[in-house]
Design the sequence.
């Protein structure tokens, strides 16, 4: 009889542990990373010769969000530009160079023949792909050829998912999407993170199950203590705030007038970075709006100066919008520290800004005073107008909350086990 109970207990524990391992794997959710395919077309660019107007290779960028992504389908809008078919063009995935320009070849996707196109716009679909992409990373789709009359259509409409904040590139250079990116759609499967506490909670159930069927006079005291501590800590963790982290790209332009004040210089190795603590997680598909009322704390650094909620001279105003997963995809925030109007010699003011299209750091110093205060000032500044940074979202459940829930799982099962033993005689 005892061996049968031992087997049952062990089997139940094994089931719980297997369940905990299973739920620790994040499910995948269908998602569209980038889509301006159906936007109104404003023009076309020829991919390659023999067209005299060819400016290829042509590239369009897109970025993954805070979780891994499997690209399963690519669609592009192309057509023939007033000429008969002559050849074809190659479609490929490229890595980013690190400076928001096309980099090395990641992999070829397909070759499209001119004969498959018409003079009117055609949507070419590449499905059944299975390309694994890294989280929070920029990639490029590139169209290239040395013998084609095909052209890639472009649109000034950047309202579609993932379009604003990206870039396109041709033989003349790389440009922000605000001037008209090429038309395409990127879709696939995104990993959806589970609350970090859930697998550990299940593991807690299993761990206590291992010992629960063993008779122990101290079980009641231990389980009560475990449950109490788990409950109190879980309540505290449930009230935890939410921290969003921003990592900007390096500055593309700097203006310094050294050896004149301010002392020091911005460099192209610097960038804007920071964190904003909100009262709650931002909702998915949040329209671009003022969310300043939700800010509990913030801290931003431009490579030379840190501005926090405690040191800012004005209340911060934050505008933000999110995608279907709650990731920040549109934003705008400006921070000031110091007086708006400088008064004394050597007095400084500081400004940090980040938005979907612009990052900036600036220091201004009064270098001459007159009867009404500062009469002349000089500034050092740094900008990035080409490559916006990326926000990292917090986990659904903060990691510290996982341990209290683990203890809670132990406590709950311990109490159940103890209850089932009532009336039983415990042998010495």
Sequence:
């Amino acid at each position: 009889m005892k061996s049968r109970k031992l087997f049952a207990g062990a089997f139940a524990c094994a089931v719980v542990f297997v369940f905990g391992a299973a739920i620790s794997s994040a499910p995948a959710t269908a998602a569209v990373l980038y889509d301006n395919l159906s936007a109104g077309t404003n023009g076309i660019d020829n991919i390659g010769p023999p067209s005299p107007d060819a400016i290829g290779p042509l590239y369009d960028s897109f970025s993954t969000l805070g979780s891994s992504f499997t690209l399963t389908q690519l669609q592009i809008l192309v057509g023939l530009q007033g000429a008969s078919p002559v050849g074809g063009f190659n479609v490929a995935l490229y890595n980013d160079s690190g400076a928001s320009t096309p980099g090395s070849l990641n992999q070829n996707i397909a070759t499209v023949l001119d004969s498959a196109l018409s003079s009117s716009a055609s949507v070419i679909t590449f499905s059944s792909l299975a390309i694994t992409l890294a989280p929070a990373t920029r990639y490029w789709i590139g169209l290239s050829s040395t013998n084609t009359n095909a052209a890639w259509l472009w649109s000034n409409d950047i309202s579609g998912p993932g379009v604003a904040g990206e870039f396109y590139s041709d033989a003349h250079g790389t440009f922000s999407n605000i001037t008209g990116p090429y038309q395409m759609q990127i879709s696939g499967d995104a990993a959806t993170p589970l609350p970090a506490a859930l697998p550990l909670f299940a593991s807690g159930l299993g761990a206590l199950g291992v010992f629960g069927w063993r008779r122990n006079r101290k079980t009641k005291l231990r389980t009560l203590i475990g449950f109490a501590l788990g409950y109190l800590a879980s309540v505290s963790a449930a009230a935890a705030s939410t921290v969003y982290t921003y990592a900007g790209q390096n500055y593309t332009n700097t203006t310094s007038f050294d050896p004149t004040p301010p002392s020091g210089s911005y460099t192209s190795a610097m960038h804007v970075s920071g964190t904003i603590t909100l009262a709650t997680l931002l909702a998915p598909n949040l329209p671009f709006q003022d969310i300043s009322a939700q800010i509990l704390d913030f801290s931003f650094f431009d490579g030379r100066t840190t501005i926090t909620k405690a040191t800012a001279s004005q209340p911060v105003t934050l505008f933000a919008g999110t995608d279907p997963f709650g990731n920040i995809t549109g934003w705008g925030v400006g921070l000031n520290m110091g007086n708006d109007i400088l008064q004394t010699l050597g007095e400084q003011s500081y400004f940090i800004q980040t938005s979907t299209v612009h990052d900036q750091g600036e220091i201004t110093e009064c270098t001459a005073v007159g009867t009404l205060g500062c009469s002349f000032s000089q500034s050092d500044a740094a900008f990035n107008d080409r490559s916006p940074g990326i926000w990292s979202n917090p986990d659904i459940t903060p990691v510290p909350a996982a341990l209290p829930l683990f203890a809670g799982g132990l406590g709950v099962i311990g109490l159940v086990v103890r209850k089932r033993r009532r009336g039983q005689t415990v042998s010495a």
About this structure: The longest strand covers residues 69-80. DSSP finds four helices and 25 strands in the chain. The helical segments are 2-23, 197-212, 219-238, 399-420.
